[in-house]
Amino acid sequence: MTCSSIQMNERIPPIPPVIHPVSTQDERPFWSVMIPTYNCINYLERTLRSVLIQDPGLERMHIEVVDDCSTDGNVEALIKDIGKGRISYYRQPKNVGSLRNFETCLNRSKGYWVHLLHGDDMIKTGFYSEVESLINQFPDVGSAITSFCAINEDGHESKPLNAYLKKKPGVLDNWLYKIASAQRVQPPCVVVKREVYEKLGGFFGVEYGEDWEMWIRIAAHYPVAFSPACLAMYRTRKLNISNQSIISEQNYIDLLKVIDISQKYLPERKRKDVRKKALQNFSISYARSSYRIYKEDHKNAVSFILAKQALKMNKNIRSFYWIIRLLSSYFKNFILSKRVAKTLKGT
């Protein structure tokens, strides 16, 4: 099978890529579960099985893996073994980067609703039935999301991370302002009507935070439904894109760019306030992460870069709290190491 004619000269599209309408005249499935993957073969089997266990059948669900030229194993063989012919497979002719791979996923999707499920994330049983129930109850929405948790490399799950958004299933109130002021969802918990991508285009502009920009853009044009049921799992990995980009500060640069882009989606009277809230929220998040990363991994360089970025974004009491804890831990360890070195020298 061949991909639609998309210009992929730039790995990060400067404008939203065009998502073409489905050309087939055949009856379309309700779902397209599109699974972009790159070098995550150790997690991919669990991702696929989390979908297959709730597969409603070929007529209702299109499932496809789009591989960005992975080098860590034979992805096609794994899919054939697990899917038994149920899962389609497409491999890029060359590595095109995550955003262009998402673009390919969206243009190859056939269903009325698209679930872009990254190759290391997972969903829990009941995800598709819950989201379909939301769609049926609120047919005017452009997107539907559930609560989600984080899952680390060892399989440990966090508590639900955004169940506070709404106690009962329904359309989110003031969602544009809430999502523009903080990243409150992650890709595995989000389903988007394909028609929305056709009208608004695909992911663009940045490599880190491209999904956040998309959720803001959708919220500016469509109502969004939410269920507090925690049915999606977002994988946190030490070597994922976000962690690799900390040292280069690309994540910081990209987040500021997303905040700037999102301004045009907001009413002019709200822009200054939402921008300030976004900078404050990310400042607190970065400061908290700086302390956590130091305590867990003792990565001094990463921790202090995050602390610096936190203060550049916004100076507030909560950010100072976490940075003071970071510095306190660092100096305690520094003094301890000096004492140990002195003791060893005297023996």
UniProtKB/TrEMBL annotation:
It is an enzyme of class 2 (transferase). It comes from the Bacteria. Its EC number is 2.4.-.-. GO terms for molecular function: glycosyltransferase activity. InterPro entries: Glyco_trans_2-like, Glycosyltransf_2, Nucleotide-diphossugar_trans. Gene3D superfamilies: Spore Coat Polysaccharide Biosynthesis Protein SpsA, Chain A. Keywords: Glycosyltransferase, Transferase. It holds the Pfam family Glycos_transf_2. Residues 32-200 form the Glycosyltransferase 2-like domain. Coiled coil: none annotated. This is Glycosyltransferase. The lineage of its organism: Bacteria, Pseudomonadati, Bacteroidota, Chitinophagia, Chitinophagales.
